[in-house]
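User: Here's a protein and a ligand (oxaloacetate ion). What would the complex look like?
Assistant: Let me lay out the input and then the predicted complex.
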Amino acid sequence: MTSSTVGGAGSPAPITVTISGAGGQIGYAAMFRIASGAMFGPDQPVALRLLEIPQGVKGAEGAALELTDCAFPLLASVDIATAPERGFDGANVALLVGSRPRTAGMERADLLAANGAIFGPQGRAINDHAAEDVRVLVVGNPANTNALIAQRNAPDVPADRFTALTRLDHNRAVGLLAERAGAAVADISGVTIWGNHSTTQYPDLSHATVAGRPALDVVGAEWGRGAYADRVAKRGAEIIEVRGGSSVASAANAAIDHVRDWVLGTGNAAATSGAPAPWTSVSLPSTGAYGIPEDLIASVPARSINGQWQVVEGLSVDEFSRARIDASVAELAAERDQVAALGLI
Ligand SMILES: NC(=O)C1=CN([C@@H]2O[C@H](COP(=O)(O)OP(=O)(O)OC[C@H]3O[C@@H](n4cnc5c(N)ncnc54)[C@H](O)[C@@H]3O)[C@@H](O)[C@H]2O)C=CC1
Ligand SMILES: O=C([O-])CC(=O)C(=O)O
């Protein structure tokens, strides 16, 4: 709908980013940063596709007007769509943010059915219309199972292009650890979020370090495996209680971090230098690593190398961690069984 042209001769072709639920809060918080270059860097133009349902279109239209008013040099075009087929046409990156929130008295099966009605058709539209290199990040809850539904409805797209957001949980875990340890965020590494983006997730400090020292020694295992892990897992509810609304800017920031690291890489330099690369947490279709069944989309430690997520394998898992990982994976398996029973996958 609005349109401008970027760059001159030699400028790379724009990357098309589709945001579903673009008229909502996270979409609004994400799109200006994406248009400013936060996702792909200062030399890469972007084309934005804003996908909404009719009730949400006004929000997307208003945001598009403001995008024009920002005069972002990297923003090649903005289009608004209500049909997924058009919204995902040629998409290189798909951020699936719009979903059906749980309302009072709603059963989990009703929630999964309502989301199946969104993520099934969106998966099919991605399958049929997105660019060959499409990368999908599901933000809308229940994110892991919504990603599984979309993936199963897109049989022609490589399965590992479907991911769900646990980077927000990861960033929360890093931020809260740095705060407790009195350390800089840059001094923290080796944190992992395992399992589901839900309160069963396991924020794991077993391999984390603070300025090179084992994190569980720095903060104490009792706190690190107790109150801390609990607070990370329930941080979403804490934000809702304090703010009176769910996380928005931090969720948009995490989605941008996830896609930026996926496309630009977390470990390219280390892969060639032989130095250990930092990892992050990503909900990926399981490779079977760490005993996670292969048909689940579960959070694991991962690095992106040459544009592909690779699970960090071979980390030791003690009895405590095993039980916590298994509990969250069991919840994912139960969600998978429910959507399978509903015929959604
Ligand atoms: N994975 C994560 O870490 C996090 C996930 N979330 C989830 O992200 C989702 C979005 O959150 P907000 O932006 O705050 O919600 P919001 O309610 O402000 O926006 C959602 C938008 O999605 C649109 N929408 C609904 N169905 C759609 C469809 N079929 N196609 C296109 N658009 C559709 C709505 O019209 C609305 O504008 C929620 O499910 C929330 O629970 C939120 C924070 C963190
Ligand atoms: O519970 C919500 O809707 C928001 C959410 O996922 C989070 O903050 O982690």
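Summary: The pocket of NAI (ligand 1) is lined by residues 20-21, 23-27, 51-53, 55-56, 59, 97-99, 101, 118, 139-141, 143, 165, 168, 197, 246-248, 251 (CB under 6 Å).
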